């Protein structure tokens, strides 16, 4: 299995090389050169398997010969050992044909743990056998950063720097990133929004002297392994509702487009998915794009679902690559145009996108009202991101079962949940003392040179 860049001008890599490389050297994102499929019988057989067994079957052909079967099974087992639910990703029923996939039973209470715990194990295995060390720099709107820190804290051969937008993450998210006291963890509060954090991260990857000098690695969804790990729960949840003998639809609260792109990969692998619905908050660039065919940045307005406050949706580039018939030059041209604020998508590419994706947008009031209504109707307490998904999922109900992804635990956003339903959700026992812990954080400017200098100095001090 080889991996190619969405901009068509970077070396082809193996799974392990692509994982350790992060952003392609032409600025694009790595994708598999072809998508392996599972037969109906193979999908049906997932029904009797544990989450870990299903994960092995779904991901095996993407990793090629990077690991033996036994090595890969061990990596998967270690990745999910500290989840707090036996099913890992349990499905609960909200209404007769609407189900919620709870993805918040991992160590940091967000869906990011599914991929980050796996990536943590993959990196440890690969770095140890290569005898290498890396510098991970991550950009976060709140959840990716805490999941990355949890997955890599305390490791000798990894430094992890997390850029988060100062004042724009919840208190719990910030504490998750600033209270670990491991010497290899560096929380950086950037003066800007998430798009600035992600842009500076990509700038670092495009500065080859810096990139090669610190041996930069990425664990954002820039990294294909992040997307791959998320494909698994589309299969396990759909199978538990009767796939492949019955179609299912999914609604996915969306920001950087990684999670829903994993659903698209599941569909291409043969999972019978009817609709994949993009759910956005008031930062609705993806919904506007699906409606108008123009991808136009408008600036980010902070919302009560802060992890989705994103305008430059990184993985949309992977969807565009397919929609343009895998024409890397066309994608590179669109990304060049985006530097001036917008690009128009061709009619053919829009048709391809609309064949696979529907979309909806949810206001702040609607998000709060959904938290309140679902608690009253079925007792499920939703985080604001999941509520955005459920609201859009309700608008797209049909005879096909709808699965909405619950992407974070409500206790990560207690103020928004309490304001909506009058009760404050409590943290699980293993995090109960988090708010009392001391924080370690450095305020940083939105400036590439200053960030690179700081990172180099910190590495030199270790
Ligand atoms: C809680 C939560 N929900 C939804 C999303 C959106 O996921 P994606 O960026 O993969 O679209 C994020 C962040 O990415 C998140 O942290
Ligand atoms: N919502 C994310 C944003 C980073 O996106 P990713 O797709 O690179 O993980 C977050 O919580 O940080």
Could you characterize the architecture of this molecule?
With 462 residues, the chain is of the alpha/beta class. The protein has a domain at 88-109 and 224-421: Rossmann fold (3-Layer(aba) Sandwich). 45% of the residues lie in helices and 15% in strands. It is built from 19 helices and 15 strands. The strands form four sheets. A six-stranded mixed sheet has the order 3-4-14-9-10-13, with helices on both faces. Strands 8-5-6-7-15 form a five-stranded parallel sheet, sandwiched between helices. It is globular. The mean pLDDT is 97.
Radius of gyration computed on alpha carbons: 20 Å
Low-confidence stretches: none
Number of strands: 15
Query: How would you sum up the global shape?
Result: globular
Please, what is the average pLDDT?
A: 97
Distance between the termini: 37 Å
Q: Main β-sheet, in a few words? A: 6 strands, mixed
| CATH architecture field of the domain at 88-109 and 224-421 | 3-Layer(aba) Sandwich
**Residue share in β-strands:** 15-25%
CATH C-level category of the domain at 88-109 and 224-421:
Alpha Beta
CATH topology of the domain at 88-109 and 224-421, what is it called?
Rossmann fold
> Which hetero compounds are present in the coordinates?
pyridoxal-5'-phosphate, ligand LJ64HWYM
Strand order of the largest sheet: 3-4-14-9-10-13
In terms of structural class, how would the helical and strand content be classed?
alpha/beta
Proportion in helices: 40-55%
Question: How many helices does DSSP assign?
Answer: 19
């Amino acid at each position: 299995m080889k991996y190619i860049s969405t901009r068509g001008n970077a070396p082809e890599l193996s799974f392990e090389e692509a994982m350790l490389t992060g952003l392609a050297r032409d600025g694009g994102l790595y994708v598999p050169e072809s998508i392996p499929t599972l037969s109906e019988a193979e999908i049906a057989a997932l029904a009797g398997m544990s989450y870990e067994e299903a994960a092995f079957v779904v991901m095996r052909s993407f990793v090629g010969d990077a690991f033996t079967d036994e090595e890969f099974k061990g990596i998967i087992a270690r990745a999910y050992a500290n989840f707090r639910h036996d099913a890992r990703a349990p499905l609960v029923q909200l209404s007769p044909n609407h189900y919620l996939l709870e993805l918040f039973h991992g160590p940091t209470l967000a869906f990011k743990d599914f991929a980050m715990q796996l990536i943590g194990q993959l990196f440890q295995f690969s770095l140890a056998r290569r005898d290498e060390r890396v510098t991970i720099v991550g950009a976060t709107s709140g959840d990716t950063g805490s999941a990355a820190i949890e997955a890599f804290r305390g490791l000798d051969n990894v430094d992890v720097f997390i850029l988060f937008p100062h004042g724009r993450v919840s208190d719990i998210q910030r504490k998750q990133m600033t209270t670990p006291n491991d010497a290899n963890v560096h929380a950086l509060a950037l003066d800007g929004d998430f798009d600035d954090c992600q842009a500076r991260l990509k700038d670092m990857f495009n500065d080859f002297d810096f990139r090669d000098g610190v041996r930069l690695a990425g664990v954002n969804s820039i990294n294909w392994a992040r997307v791959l790990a998320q494909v698994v729960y589309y299969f396990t949840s759909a199978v538990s509702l009767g796939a492949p003998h019955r179609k299912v639809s999914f609604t996915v609260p969306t920001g950087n487009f990684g999670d829903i792109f994993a659903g698209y990969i599941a569909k291409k692998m043969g999972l019978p998915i009817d609709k994949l619905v993009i759910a956005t908050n008031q930062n609705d660039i993806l919904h506007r794009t699906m409606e108008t065919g123009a991808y136009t940045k408008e600036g980010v307005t902070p919302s009560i679902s802060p992890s989705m406050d994103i305008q430059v949706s990184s993985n949309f580039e992977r969807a565009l690559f397919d929609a343009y018939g895998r024409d890397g030059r066309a994608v590179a041209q669109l990304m060049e145009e985006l530097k001036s604020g917008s690009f128009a998508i061709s009619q053919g590419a829009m048709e391809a996108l609309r064949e696979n994706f529907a979309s909806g947008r949810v206001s702040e009031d609607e998000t709060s009202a959904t938290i309140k209504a679902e608690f009253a109707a079925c007792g499920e307490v939703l985080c604001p991101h999941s509520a955005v998904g459920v609201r859009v999922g309700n608008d797209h109900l049909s005879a096909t079962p709808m699965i909405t992804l619950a992407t974070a635990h409500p206790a990560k956003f207690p103020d928004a949940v309490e304001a909506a339903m009058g009760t404050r959700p409590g943290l699980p026992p293993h995090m109960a003392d988090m708010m009392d812990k001391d924080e370690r954080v450095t305020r940083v400017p939105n400036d590439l040179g200053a960030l690179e200098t700081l990172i180099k100095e910190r590495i030199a001090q270790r």
